[in-house]
Amino acid sequence: MKIIKNFLNQIHNSRFKKECLYDPTTKFYESARIVNNLNIRSAINIGSNSHIKGELLVFGHGGEISIGSYCFVGENSRLWSAKKIDIGNRVLISHDVNIFDNLIHPIDPELRHKQFLSIITSGQPKQISTLDEKEIHIGNDVLIGAKSIILRGITIGEGSIVGAGSVVTKDIPQNSIVAGNPARLIREL
Predict the structure, then answer these.
(1) Cα separation of 118 and 151, whole Å?
(2) Is the distance from CB of 137 to CB of 86 less than 8 angstroms?
(3) Per residue in 27-43, pLDDT tens?
(4) Is 51 a known active-site residue?
(5) What is the spatial distance between Cα 101 and Cα 122, in angstroms, rounded to a whole number?
(6) Residue from 90, 50, 45, 89 nearest 63 by CA
(7) Which of 116, 114, 38, 51 shows the shortest CA–CA distance to 80?
(8) Bridge partners of 184?
């Protein structure tokens, strides 16, 4: 039975074969979406036994997403990278979480409109003015609660918990619980 289950999982996963690198034990659910605008498979790398229900996206001008082993990305969660999002092992990202290592759109209205026109006519631009990209690092054994937002340049220390609905604007030390908008330290573990 396990052999049949693994075979069916590999067939289901094959729809992402051109989009990313992943271990054969990785499981993609029907709701999973991989958008690799760079068209470089190694830009998105997923470790063993991880389960993906959300969306992983790298921009046309750059980006990298690395997810460790035994991780979970919940339904309707989005990881959008123009620089680098690095996620450790055993990280649980609940449903409806947004993680952005960039501003998504330029601040200047003219540049923002130019980017929008490019996206709707020919896809993600390969060249773009700065989106103020800053790497995100999430340590091992982190739990990110539902509907949280992790903004660019953030490091979340190993073993930490982000409470549901939090907006993380500053680094989180390891083994800490944070919550709120903006997220504040509730207590250390």
Answers:
(1) 24
(2) yes
(3) 999 999 999 999 999 99
(4) no
(5) 23
(6) 45
(7) 38
(8) 179
Torsion region of 177: left, alpha or beta (phi above 0 gives left; psi -120 to 50 gives alpha): beta
CB 168 within 8 A of CB 151: yes
Return the percent helix, strand and coil in the chain, to nearest 5. 15, 30, 55
User: Taking a C-beta distance cutoff of 8 angstroms, is the pair 166, 179 a contact?
Assistant: yes
- How many angstroms separate the CA atoms of 95 and 54, rounded? 8
Instruction: Quick: pLDDT tens for 128-162.
Output: 767 888 999 999 999 999 999 999 999 999 999 99
Three-class secondary structure assignment of 58-123: ECCCCCCEEECCCCEECCCCEEEECCCEEECCCCEECCCCEEECCCCCCCCHHHHHHHHHHHHHHC
Judged by DSSP in three states, 6 sits in helix
What pTM does this model have? 0.88
* Selected catalytic residue, list 12, 61, 95, 105: 105
Whole-angstrom Cα distance, residue 49 to residue 69? 6
d(CA 180, CA 178) in angstroms, rounded, equals 7
Domains of the chain and CATH, by start: 2-188 (2.160.10.10)
The pLDDT mean for the chain works out to 90
